[in-house]
Amino acid sequence: MEICVYYEKINEDSIRIKRVYASSPTIEIPEFIDGYIVREIGTIVFLKRKSIYLILF
Questions:
Q1: What are phi and psi of 3, to 5 degrees?
Q2: What are the C-alpha distances in Å from 1 to residues 22, 25, 39?
Q3: Using one digit for the tens of pLDDT, what is the confidence trace for 13-54?
Q4: Count of beta carbons in the 10 Å neighbourhood of residue 2
Q5: Is residue 7 within 8 Å of 15, Cβ to Cβ?
Q6: Cβ contact 15:38 at 8 Å
Q7: Residue from 25, 23, 30, 17 nearest 3 by CA
Q8: The model's pTM
């Protein structure tokens, strides 16, 4: 599965996920990305997705 995640830093150790592009209808959001803790998921993360069957945290 190919996935592309765009994020922004909230502080020194945390990020907010802004957008996720994936080829699969199942998306797993990891606890850490590039060594940063995922603290928030933005309001338009999955805006253009036509179908999402499962989001795992």
A1: -140, 140
A2: 7, 10, 24
A3: 999 999 988 877 778 888 999 999 999 988 887 777 666 655
A4: 7
A5: yes
A6: yes
A7: 23
A8: 0.76
